[in-house]
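Question (not urgent): is this output format expected?
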Amino acid sequence: MHGAQPLLRRKLRRRGAAEPGYLEAVDERFGRYAQPAHPGAVWIHAVSLGETRAAAILVQALRERDPGLRLLLTHGTATGRAEGSRLLREGDVQAWLPWDTPRAVQRFLAHFRPSAGVLMETEVWPNLAHACRRAGVPLALANARLSDKSLQQALRLQRLSRPAYGSLAAVWAQTDADAQRLATVGAQVSGVFGNLKFDARPDEELIARGRRWRERIDTPVVMFASSREGEEAAFFRVLAGWRDLEHAGWARRSSDKAMAALRWLVVPRHPQRFDEVAALAREAGLSVSRRSAWSDGEGPADADVWIGDSLGEMAQYYGLADVALLGGSFLPLGGQNLIEAAACGCPVVMGPHTFNFAEASERAEAAGAALRVQTLEDGVRQAALLAGDAPRRAQRAELAARFAQAHRGAAGRTADAILALVHDPRREPHA
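Got this back:
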């Protein structure tokens, strides 16, 4: 690691040019911590933004059960760390998890001395798992998932992955299918608790603000939620191509007419791409209005495309939208979380690639909370038709809300299991 430090620091400087958060506390990446530590905290690692939002649900359930809980929260990305700062209370500590080398993780554990560790969803590292086992720090994997693709990767590297998964003190899977895949790579699955994200309670004030904005608009709104690189450019081409047909008087199909009476909102998954996405829309000949220029009272300005360039306001955007296209599902990226959309009563149109949320996507489709299409162009048309059909849209919105409500409960089950692990008197350090 010492020899690689200049390369790793250079990598962080490059990332930091776009996201300054990567320039914060760089030495922590190598296991060197200047901040004071208070032994005995419950350590939760949430690598990025999605995992941190799931961790927030879990932290709330833990604090309800143990108001005096002290938290050590670690991350791997700047967006995760920024989101995680909202969870901190007096006595809590936030830090970067170091890169997975023996010395760095040993320094991390020696400095913070947590009572137990909880990795969110997928983040299992060989040296970290081994070091926790040796130090007697029980390490659990919560809200655990493993896709077929990740399973194959783990099996190819099973000399490393099998001991790492086998070192975990507990694994709480999202689904039975995840549990089976995790067991295949050597994990001892302790329970199937469901997906924490179903327990999220959308901010009612944000939803209400979005709906107030929607009431001022006389046309339906389709949102491209958590869009990913490559998807937006294709999306804008669809919109620009339709507009050219409409201007030429060639729009004849019902879906073409539905698209004529729509507003389009794009909320990129990664905030560092807000400027890029706005530029892509303009390059396609579309006018743009960005959330950062709107007042909370007035809402969106007139434009071909709205860009949701803010953090922490997804519930507001779902309140504004009538239908959501699911980002990450129209390219082989695995899809993004559709549960928040459902909880806000916003039906979803998703593409073919949802392997990161396979069971949730399948259940949503079966429940009528989501529609599946094979191409982005078809997705845009189906979203337009659904958004323009008020009775059908209202029915789908109700089904989405019911779907989200029916699968809650994972947060309480996981919090109880973590506290039992922390207070287990049989725990002994491993040799």
